[in-house]
Specification:
The protein contains 10 helices and 14 strands. With about 325 residues, the protein is α/β, with parallel strands linked by helices. The strands form 3 sheets. The protein has a 6-stranded mixed sheet, sandwiched between helices. The chain is elongated. It starts with 14 loop residues before the first strand and ends in a 6-residue tail after the last helix. It comes from Sphingomonas rubra.
Length: about 325
């Protein structure tokens, strides 16, 4: 796929990706239909790291494959860097790099050959190719001439990231990029992604590591059953969690956890530690502690756990069936 040099550099819209009313329906056995995407609408702001989260089977991969041109949408519109994927498919594809969950490349090519071939497919002139620079950036320069089949799983994933960047797209989509990658390699990958983002690349990330998403993403959209159930700046989204947990150490051993109307849930741990869940829109920590003391218990120590993205994610997707 040849590209028109510089054609996609100036966006026609403010959003890096704009999706409006996107639907995808699959025909299944028995003449019925399965709707994988049901009127999905959101924008990915330029220059951000944007999280796209959801349970298995929620529609994330379908959405990414539509953007990649691998799946045809049923209805709705989608544009990448201002280019409609139907009206300007070549420019849209040139504006995005996608790292899929599956590791896809010829195992008999070396990493440098893999990047050179990919750059050729995108019509990047030889003088403008950055194969060794990209391998250096993902810590694979010393493996440039090794067969790709000899690379570890983490190395192969980093090679996939370099492969997605050969044509210098302004938008990079990472679909579960750290699955099966050890902590050190994961940190190296995120250092590179942050550097790309600081250099102006908009990043879309899907991950099951919610702590990762909370730390990295400026904004997060959550999809459940093919619909967007949340789309907010990360801090605001985390702030939606109403449940809070307080661990109270009491002054004597207990055989059973006490109860009180203000406790959403209470668990006795180790005989003296009460782990109490309460809803902060109904009561505050002081009322919870007072309820403990009303049971005739002395409080020796108190610690709290702030709500995190996992709490919000579970509350928004509870009851969904993963597949």
């Amino acid at each position: 796929m040849a590209r028109q040099a510089g054609a996609y550099r100036e966006p026609m819209t403010e959003a890096a990706i704009s999706i409006q009313g996107l639907c995808k329906t699959y025909a299944v056995k028995g003449g019925t239909a399965k709707r994988a995407l049901d009127g999905v609408t959101f924008d990915v702001p330029r220059g951000q790291i944007f999280g796209l989260l959801g349970p298995n089977g929620a529609g994330k991969s379908t959405l990414i494959n539509i953007l990649a041109g691998l799946v045809n949408k049923t209805s709705g519109t989608a544009s990448i860097w201002g280019f409609d994927i139907d009206q300007h498919p070549r420019n849209a594809k040139a504006s995005i790099g996608i790292v899929n969950q599956e590791i896809l490349f010829d195992p008999f090519f070396t990493p440098v050959e893999t990047l050179e071939i990919q750059a050729g497919l995108y019509g990047v002139p030889k003088k403008q190719r950055r194969s060794l620079e990209l391998l250096r950036a993902v810590h694979l320069e010393d493996k440039a001439n090794a067969y790709a089949r000899t690379l570890s799983g983490g190395m192969k994933r980093r090679l996939m990231v370099a492969k997605a960047m050969v044509h210098s797209p302004p938008v990079l989509v990472l679909d579960e990029p750290t699955a099966g990658v050890d902590i050190q390699l994961r940190q190296q990958l995120w250092e590179y992604v942050r550097a790309l983002n600081e250099g102006g690349v908009t990043v879309v990330l899907t991950t099951h590591y919610l702590e990762e998403a909370e730390q990295l993403c400026d904004r997060i959209a959550i999809i459940n059953h093919g619909r967007v159930v949340a789309n907010e700046p990360t801090r605001e989204l985390v702030g939606r969690a109403q449940e809070k947990v307080v661990a109270v150490t009491v002054d004597r051993d207990l055989t059973a956890a006490p109860t009180a109307p203000c406790f959403e849930k209470i668990v006795l741990k180790g005989g003296r530690v009460l782990e109490i869940t309460y809803s902060k829109d109904r009561v505050n920590a002081g009322q919870v502690l007072a309820a403990v003391q009303e049971q005739g218990l002395g409080i020796v120590d108190v610690s709290t756990r702030e709500a995190d993205l996992e709490d919000v994610f579970l509350s928004l997707t509870r009851g969904s069936a993963g597949n």
